[in-house]
Specification:
Elements: H1 2-6, H2 10-67, H3 73-77, H4 92-96, H5 101-105, H6 112-118, E1 121-127, E2 132-135, H7 147-152, E3 154-158, E4 161-170, H8 177-226, H9 241-289, H10 297-324, E5 333-336, H11 337-355, E6 358-363, E7 369-372, H12 374-391, E8 397-405, E9 408-414, H13 437-442, H14 449-459, E10 463-467, E11 475-481
Parallel strand pairs: 6-8
Antiparallel strand pairs: 1-2, 1-4, 3-4, 5-7, 8-9, 9-11, 10-11
Helix pairs in contact: 2-8, 8-9, 9-10, 10-14, 11-12, 12-14
């Protein structure tokens, strides 16, 4: 049975667990209430019996003083065909219940032992030697009073001497009022516990369903994701932990779908980027083999240039893969970014002059100390400058600025090109993204420079972004933590 429950669904497990807790709790409450009720009622009965004994003792003492023995004491306590003689006087219980002599006279006549039995009590009268002279239950007549009875018995004193003992105790049978009362209480508590247990089980099953339903939806959605259906989402209800888990799952699914799309786009872009240089190499090689072109340096030069493009593409892909995997080898040391800016500008000067573009730089603060890899940071600047020169028309200007502010070192590259459309700005740092694919291929770009620049800036615990105000070109800015020497 336990194995079946353990191997069942989570809803069955939770319901079974709730049921177990409810049953154990209900049984514990019933047992505890029964024990407490029995104990308290026993104390009450014992006190009531003691009051009866104390009420009987003076009357029994008067009887003994008048008769000089215990002969005929049963007439006093039990009576003969009617109410005992002592009942002509009010008793403790009668007074407690508010009954006076007139009300007692209206009670139906019964023999004394019937009356004591009806109250669930037995009266025992023993002489001074402990020999029982009267027992309304008839069990101890003529026998010695048990040793435990002396502790509970009330002495009967005449002229300062003990002439006997009286003991009033519960009958101890199953049909006494006390026993019937305790059974009624236990039965009532058991019924209430059973009813509350059933209600609790229904509520437990409902709560368990509320808990497991979102988990079931999550399981089905996870199965669909495992099958490759990355568009599946789970509904988010409320703001509890399960809702947060569902929200996290949906975010994970969105990220997986985005990564899948990017991976597929990456493969398409790589295939597209490789197709052009390979087509040029194939066409040029076939022409040389067929004798269409003679094998001169001018005819081999296109093959060489396309080979260089392929090499740059492979190197860029490798660098980008290492950066994304967090395995990029970095040489950390204090670096003056102002010097790197000057070297990068000098390195791009020739290419800019060939296109008729001016490069200007402005260093508001020097030096600009950062902690990082000088070679990687220089490559970031070269990628940004190369992109700026590529999109700046002849006669335009590329401006490079460097400054520090608020514990940060800023570097900015601005061109005077056509700028970037607002809808294209979110995609600028994506792999192989180009606003103008044909122009980028002609200039020899791989489409990975800005993606690599972003990864390397992030590897230096910095950030990079682009702006394109109206009537101005693109403005690329990256910021790094300042290093205090």
């Amino acid at each position: 049975m336990l194995r079946r429950i353990w191997g069942a669904s989570l809803w069955v497990k939770l319901t079974a667990a709730f049921a177990f807790v409810v049953v154990v709790g209900a049984l514990g409450v019933v047992v505890l209430i029964s024990l407490i009720t029995s104990r308290e009622f026993e104390i009450y009965v014992t006190r009531d019996s003691a009051r009866w004994a104390q009420w009987l003792a003076p009357q029994l003492a008067t009887y003994y003083a008048s008769n000089g023995s215990w002969d005929g004491v049963d007439a006093l306590v039990i009576g003969a065909g009617g109410m005992p003689m002592m009942m002509q006087h009010s008793s403790p219980s009668m007074n407690h219940m508010g009954m006076d002599r007139e009300m007692m006279g209206q009670m139906p006549m019964m023999r004394g032992e019937d009356m004591w039995t009806g109250m669930g009590l037995r009266v025992i009268v023993a002489d001074k030697n402990g020999i029982v002279r009267l027992d309304t239950s008839g069990e101890l007549m003529g026998q010695s009073l048990p040793h435990s009875g002396y502790d509970q018995a009330t002495p009967i004193n005449v002229n300062g001497q003990t002439v006997g003992f009286v003991l009033v105790a519960p009958l101890g049978t199953s049909n006494t009022p006390e026993t019937l009362f305790l059974h009624s209480v236990t039965r009532a508590v058991l019924l209430v516990a059973l009813g509350m247990g059933l209600v609790s089980l229904v509520m437990a099953a409902f709560i368990a369903r509320q808990i497991t339903a979102p988990l079931s939806r999550l399981a089905k959605a996870a199965y669909e994701v495992a099958r490759g259906n990355l568009s599946v989402r789970v509904p988010v209800q409320g703001e509890d932990d399960l809702a947060r888990v569902s929200l996290a799952f949906n975010r994970m699914a969105v990220s997986l779908e985005r990564q899948h799309q990017l991976r597929r786009q990456l493969m398409n872009d790589i295939a597209h980027e490789l197709r052009t240089p390979l087509s040029v190499i194939q066409a040029q090689t076939e022409a040389l083999i067929d004798g269409v072109f003679p094998p001169t340096p001018d005819n081999i030069e296109p093959i060489y240039q396309q080979t260089l493009l392929l090499r740059r593409l492979v190197n860029d892909l490798r660098e980008l893969a290492l950066a994304e995997a967090g395995e990029l080898q970095m040489s950390w040391e204090p670096v003056d970014l102002a010097e790197i800016i000057l070297r990068a500008v000098k390195g791009m000067q020739s290419s800019a002059e060939n296109k008729g573009v001016d490069i200007e730089y402005e260093l508001r603060d020097t030096p600009l100390w950062v902690q990082g890899d000088a070679q990687r940071l220089e490559q970031v600047l070269l990628n940004l400058l190369s992109n700026a020169v590529r999109y700046t028309p002849k006669g335009g200007t590329v401006k490079v600025r460097g400054w520090k502010q608020g514990g940060q070192v800023y570097c900015q590259v601005e061109d005077s090109g056509p700028g970037i459309r607002p809808e294209d700005i979110p995609h600028v740092f994506e792999r192989f993204w180009r606003a103008d694919r044909s122009r980028s291929r002609e200039t020899g770009g791989t489409g990975l420079g800005l993606a690599i620049a972003r990864k390397w800036v992030e590897a230096h615990r910095g950030r990079i972004w682009v702006e394109s105000p109206p009537s101005r070109g693109a403005i690329f800015t990256f910021v790094l933590p300042e290093h205090t020497r």
